[in-house]
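Tokens in:
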């Protein structure tokens, strides 16, 4: 097989999920994001704090829409975000004078660390990147970024995932811790 032939793929698209699965994915993501956003906008934002970051949208897809995926499990959600946040802040501190390099190093190092710790969670790459490109409000947090918004926001989403994903009889979360 040539280099370009590999790009054609070799399997069919996965089957469509049923309507019940779609509904529960929607309910879970609505409630999970609503909880994080409500805490952010009603309680923390007026005090100048934050709880919501863009990478949580991608986490919602995994923990509410792909509940059986290894990438969606609590270990991956929490570990992936927390480790990536530490990596992102560290990259900014060490390489902040070269934001293009800090951004690249943050994402690459986050992926390597998540792989090494069995906590791969794709939104973690965005969490590391946000630490670098998030602007002054994020930069001013320093390592507090790891705890809030990242740790606290991911924990709220995990709690909602545990509660909602186990309501239907044919759905179960998590697969492992």
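Residues out:
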């Amino acid at each position: 097989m040539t280099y370009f032939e590999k790009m054609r793929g070799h399997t069919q698209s996965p089957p469509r999920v049923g309507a019940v699965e779609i509904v529960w994915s929607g309910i879970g993501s609505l409630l999970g994001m609503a909880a994080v956003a409500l805490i952010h906008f009603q309680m923390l934002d007026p005090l100048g704090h934050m709880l919501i970051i863009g990478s949580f949208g991608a986490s919602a897809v995994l923990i509410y829409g792909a509940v059986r995926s290894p990438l969606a499990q609590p270990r991956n959600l929490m570990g992936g975000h927390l480790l990536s946040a530490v990596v992102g802040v560290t990259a900014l501190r060490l390489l902040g004078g070269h934001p293009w390099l800090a951004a690249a190093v943050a994402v690459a190092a986050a992926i390597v660390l998540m792989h090494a710790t069995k906590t791969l969670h794709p939104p973690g790459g965005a969490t590391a990147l946000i630490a670098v490109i998030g602007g002054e409000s994020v930069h001013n947090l320093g390592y507090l970024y790891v705890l809030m918004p990242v740790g606290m926001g991911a924990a709220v989403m995990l709690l909602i995932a545990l509660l909602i994903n186990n309501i239907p009889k044919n759905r179960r979360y998590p697969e492992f811790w």
